[in-house]
């Protein structure tokens, strides 16, 4: 990610933070805008062209989207194109990120990260589903409809919208990568860090609270815990936060002991 994109992302995220009237309709419109911009090299090039004047880029947004989206969405899109981006692809990523953040903001009390993680595990355990969602064949909208049907009654509206939208717009990314990115964006929007916990058995509420508190103290931020039941852990826990792995499992200690004995 170039420095221009880093600065631009910070400004667009700030604009969303202070925006009022952000609901799931706004998030849905932003997802549609990301697909539209990515689907036209002419449009994405014009909107991300730093050589063009800011006013010219604003006009393109107004001409293309003003009649199709709400004023809140139009304002956020306008803020996005006012920035300098390292590439048109970065602008598309940013609009999609705005959509994910908007969905999280629209339902602040929903466990969006948890439901996205649950769906990611479902995909991981069903190769045929992963293949169907990741295939280049078939209509993108049909993949979105499939996700909506699978999550109906099982996930909150924000998580359903996010999952159904990102699978329609993969851009050479695997389904689980799309969902993982979305989870991280939602957690960041809420000021939290995502931690994946691998345990041999489900954690009790007390264990979950203690672990979340310990991780929050270690990383200086709130923590969203996602638990994976993994019999190979044997006992204890293995926790992954981004690239940081904390392995306190019995299996890890046994492996370390075998390595020391081997010399």
Automatic annotation (TrEMBL):
<protein>
    <recommendedName>
        <fullName>ATP synthase subunit delta</fullName>
    </recommendedName>
</protein>
<keyword id="KW-0813">Transport</keyword>
<keyword id="KW-0406">Ion transport</keyword>
<dbReference type="InterPro" id="IPR000711">
    <property type="entry name" value="ATPase_OSCP/dsu"/>
</dbReference>
<comment type="function">
    <text>F(1)F(0) ATP synthase produces ATP from ADP in the presence of a proton or sodium gradient. F-type ATPases consist of two structural domains, F(1) containing the extramembraneous catalytic core and F(0) containing the membrane proton channel, linked together by a central stalk and a peripheral stalk. During catalysis, ATP synthesis in the catalytic domain of F(1) is coupled via a rotary mechanism of the central stalk subunits to proton translocation.</text>
</comment>
<keyword id="KW-0472">Membrane</keyword>
<keyword id="KW-1003">Cell membrane</keyword>
<dbReference type="GO" id="GO:0045259">
    <property type="term" value="C:proton-transporting ATP synthase complex"/>
</dbReference>
<comment type="function">
    <text>This protein is part of the stalk that links CF(0) to CF(1). It either transmits conformational changes from CF(0) to CF(1) or is implicated in proton conduction.</text>
</comment>
<dbReference type="Pfam" id="PF00213">
    <property type="entry name" value="OSCP"/>
</dbReference>
<keyword id="KW-0139">CF(1)</keyword>
<comment type="similarity">
    <text>Belongs to the ATPase delta chain family.</text>
</comment>
<keyword id="KW-0375">Hydrogen ion transport</keyword>
<dbReference type="GO" id="GO:0005886">
    <property type="term" value="C:plasma membrane"/>
</dbReference>
<dbReference type="GO" id="GO:0046933">
    <property type="term" value="F:proton-transporting ATP synthase activity, rotational mechanism"/>
</dbReference>
<keyword id="KW-0066">ATP synthesis</keyword>
């Amino acid at each position: 990610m170039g420095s221009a994109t880093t600065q631009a992302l910070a400004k667009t995220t700030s604009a969303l933070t202070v925006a009022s009237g952000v609901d799931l309709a706004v998030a849905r419109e932003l997802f549609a805008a990301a697909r539209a911009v990515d689907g036209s090299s002419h449009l994405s090039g014009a909107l991300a062209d730093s050589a063009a004047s800011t006013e010219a880029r604003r006009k393109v947004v107004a001409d293309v989207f003003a009649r199709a989206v709400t004023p809140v969405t139009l304002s956020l899109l306008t803020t996005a194109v006012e920035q300098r981006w390292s590439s048109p692809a970065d602008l598309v990523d940013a609009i999609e990120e705005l959509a994910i953040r908007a969905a999280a903001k629209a339902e602040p009390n929903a466990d969006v990260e948890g439901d996205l993680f649950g769906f990611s595990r479902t995909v991981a355990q069903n190769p045929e589903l992963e293949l169907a969602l990741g295939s280049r064949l078939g209509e993108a909208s049909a993949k979105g409809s499939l996700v909506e049907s699978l999550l109906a009654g099982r996930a909150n509206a924000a998580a359903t919208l996010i999952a159904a939208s990102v699978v329609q717009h993969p851009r050479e990314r695997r389904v689980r990568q799309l969902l993982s990115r979305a989870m991280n964006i939602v957690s960041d929007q809420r000021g939290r860090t995502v931690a994946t916990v691998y345990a041999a058995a489900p954690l009790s509420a007390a264990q979950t609270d203690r672990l979340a508190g310990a991780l929050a103290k270690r990383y200086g931020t709130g923590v969203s815990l996602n638990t994976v039941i993994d019999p190979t852990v044997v006992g204890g826990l293995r926790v992954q936060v981004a690239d940081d792995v904390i392995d306190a499992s019995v299996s890890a200690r046994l492996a370390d002991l075998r390595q020391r004995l081997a010399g």
